[in-house]
Amino acid sequence: MTEQTEAILERLVGLHPKSIDLEVGRIERLLAELGNPHFSLPPTIHIAGTNGKGSTSAFLRAMAEAAGKKVHVYTSPHLVHFRERIRLAGTLVSDEILIDALRRCEKANDGEPITFFEITTTAAFLLFSEQPADLLILEVGLGGRFDATNVIKDALATVITPIAHDHEGFFGTEISRIAWEKAGIMKKGVPSIWAQQEEEVRAVLETEAAKVGAQPLSIGGQDWMSFEEHGSLIFQGESGLLDLPMPRLGGRHQLFNAGTAIATVRQVLPGITDEQIAKGLTSVDWPARMQRLTSGHLFDQLPKGSELWLDGGHNPHAGLAVASAFADLEEKAPRSLHMVVGMLNTKDPAGYFAPFKGLAKDIITVPIEGNDAALDPVDLAQIAQQAGIPASAAGSVEEAFKRLTLMNMKPAPRILVSGSLYLAGNILKTNGTLPQ
């Protein structure tokens, strides 16, 4: 990312209101100044949920691109550079094009208070409206109902991935309230596809779908299901059964994210063939989600034969999914699991750590460089110890990796770096493994 890009992004942060109220008035004002580009988007699949939004988006993009479609994608947060958030017809936005869009938004905003996400989402809408594509995959930033992305008036489909506790400072601790927020993206007469949900969540979604008239509904566990059988991904829906290759993204939870994407394709993109769905499953790429690193600066420091894994999961639901994935790895190829973890102070570390008890041999907690909201590693280590896992604090990621090297473990260890997408971004940058 160029110095020019960094400078303008820094200026936009300075426009942030003194307090965030969850409403869309600010972005609607700015969009109107720019001619309402959000009314001129390609057919849009709008995705909300607590976990799996990014992976489901990645599966959808891979399947659509396997069918030769040009796909815009909007996701957040980024891992290393801001350009990762905006993909134009298959390619990450260039610095030159991004700077031009941001400058136009800055000029139109004329110094008015606006959140960083709102003004950068406006820039994304501007670019998506100006460059042709067959499809836009649009991921919400926070919640759904009052999210900046929810200013769109229509959609090809809405998708709701698994809903769990997260961002409790905004939405509280009641799962029904969180579900109500996510349900806000559903629209009258627009198909809605849901991953399998807890009973309480599903009841809220059904109530809200009926209120707005969202239809038809395609519900995981009822209208479709996806599971592994004999080394294949089996997708079973109302239109029949598919026997597919296992997804490139690792972990049992990715079977369900892939299933949500397949259900969406079958509901609203019928031109995509079974062969193209299969190609998408095996070509999909989504960094920092059960990503195995096999080279780079940090990897090269580890004992020969070590495994290095990276995952940005940061809430209890994600912890359970990742722990299950590593339990499966342990069953297939046993070796000791050692974790390097950094987390933000808005998360639930105890809930995240709980599924790893008895699975992880130890945890080294680290700071998250450049993030003032990161938990102190000493405090985080104490929480891990209270969860029943031996833990100690390190002053940096580099120090944690040196400790792992000095342990001289045999066989070579399996190492998981996790707890935050911000930490994952730092790891990718330090390791020299930049997202493309």
UniProtKB/TrEMBL annotation:
<dbReference type="InterPro" id="IPR004101">
    <property type="entry name" value="Mur_ligase_C"/>
</dbReference>
<keyword id="KW-0436">Ligase</keyword>
<keyword id="KW-0479">Metal-binding</keyword>
<dbReference type="Pfam" id="PF02875">
    <property type="entry name" value="Mur_ligase_C"/>
</dbReference>
<protein>
    <recommendedName>
        <fullName>Dihydrofolate synthase/folylpolyglutamate synthase</fullName>
        <ecNumber>6.3.2.12</ecNumber>
        <ecNumber>6.3.2.17</ecNumber>
    </recommendedName>
</protein>
<keyword id="KW-0289">Folate biosynthesis</keyword>
<comment type="similarity">
    <text>Belongs to the folylpolyglutamate synthase family.</text>
</comment>
<comment type="pathway">
    <text>Cofactor biosynthesis; tetrahydrofolylpolyglutamate biosynthesis.</text>
</comment>
<dbReference type="Pfam" id="PF08245">
    <property type="entry name" value="Mur_ligase_M"/>
</dbReference>
<dbReference type="InterPro" id="IPR001645">
    <property type="entry name" value="Folylpolyglutamate_synth"/>
</dbReference>
<dbReference type="GO" id="GO:0005737">
    <property type="term" value="C:cytoplasm"/>
</dbReference>
<comment type="function">
    <text>Functions in two distinct reactions of the de novo folate biosynthetic pathway. Catalyzes the addition of a glutamate residue to dihydropteroate (7,8-dihydropteroate or H2Pte) to form dihydrofolate (7,8-dihydrofolate monoglutamate or H2Pte-Glu). Also catalyzes successive additions of L-glutamate to tetrahydrofolate or 10-formyltetrahydrofolate or 5,10-methylenetetrahydrofolate, leading to folylpolyglutamate derivatives.</text>
</comment>
<dbReference type="GO" id="GO:0046656">
    <property type="term" value="P:folic acid biosynthetic process"/>
</dbReference>
<keyword id="KW-0067">ATP-binding</keyword>
<dbReference type="GO" id="GO:0004326">
    <property type="term" value="F:tetrahydrofolylpolyglutamate synthase activity"/>
</dbReference>
<comment type="pathway">
    <text>Cofactor biosynthesis; tetrahydrofolate biosynthesis; 7,8-dihydrofolate from 2-amino-4-hydroxy-6-hydroxymethyl-7,8-dihydropteridine diphosphate and 4-aminobenzoate: step 2/2.</text>
</comment>
<dbReference type="InterPro" id="IPR036565">
    <property type="entry name" value="Mur-like_cat_sf"/>
</dbReference>
<keyword id="KW-0460">Magnesium</keyword>
<feature type="domain" description="Mur ligase C-terminal">
    <location>
        <begin position="305"/>
        <end position="420"/>
    </location>
</feature>
<dbReference type="InterPro" id="IPR013221">
    <property type="entry name" value="Mur_ligase_cen"/>
</dbReference>
<dbReference type="GO" id="GO:0046872">
    <property type="term" value="F:metal ion binding"/>
</dbReference>
<dbReference type="InterPro" id="IPR018109">
    <property type="entry name" value="Folylpolyglutamate_synth_CS"/>
</dbReference>
<keyword id="KW-0547">Nucleotide-binding</keyword>
<dbReference type="GO" id="GO:0008841">
    <property type="term" value="F:dihydrofolate synthase activity"/>
</dbReference>
<dbReference type="InterPro" id="IPR036615">
    <property type="entry name" value="Mur_ligase_C_dom_sf"/>
</dbReference>
<feature type="domain" description="Mur ligase central">
    <location>
        <begin position="47"/>
        <end position="264"/>
    </location>
</feature>
<dbReference type="GO" id="GO:0005524">
    <property type="term" value="F:ATP binding"/>
</dbReference>
<dbReference type="GO" id="GO:0046654">
    <property type="term" value="P:tetrahydrofolate biosynthetic process"/>
</dbReference>
